[in-house]
Amino acid sequence: MRLFVGIPLAAAVIDEFSAVSAQLRSGGDGLRWMTRESWHITLQFLGNTGPEQYESLVARLRELRLPAVPIEIERLGLIDRAGIVIAAVRPAPELLLLQERITAATRRCGFIPEARPYQPHITLARGKGPRQSLDALKAKISRQAKFTRSAAKEFVLYESFLSSAGSRYEIRERFALDGRLETGGTA
Fold first, then answer.
1. What's the pLDDT band for 184 if we cut at 50, 70, 90?
2. Which candidate in 43, 112, 122, 129 could, as Cys together with 87 as Cys, close a disulfide (CB 3.0–4.6 Å)?
3. CA separation, residue 164 to residues 50, 51, 79, 101 (Å)
4. What is the CATH number of the domain that holds 143?
């Protein structure tokens, strides 16, 4: 299984991203626009996972007791070098704490966290094939949309399935964010 941990988005935010994506798309932009079912905030990519490691992972993630996470989209943007359209997410203290605790829990199961700093975002589109000029898209993105603020009451364990048409994600497990903050130590 190819796994990652993430936060699903509120229905209102998904609807807003659908509208914005429709406005930003153009036939020759050289991008593969993600489907509304694929939008999420990644907390940690785990990669290939065997059955024993999966059981340990689920047990460790079930131990976490953390508060709901405020989700606020800061801005739309481009990662030019990779040709990726993103929505940057405000790194609220609760979000950073959740990501930190998940990383600590998964480390105990043998997963290695990324070395680069955590930058919460939602991927809206990825480059496909040869890079096209994204100047027209940059101009459209400069007109920023406003997005609904929400609170994540859960995080999930996703399985990723790769294909030539792009990735498809299925939820394997759900974990509640119940408002109680774990005290003392890390996961």
1. very low
2. 122
3. 24, 26, 22, 34
4. 3.90.1140.10
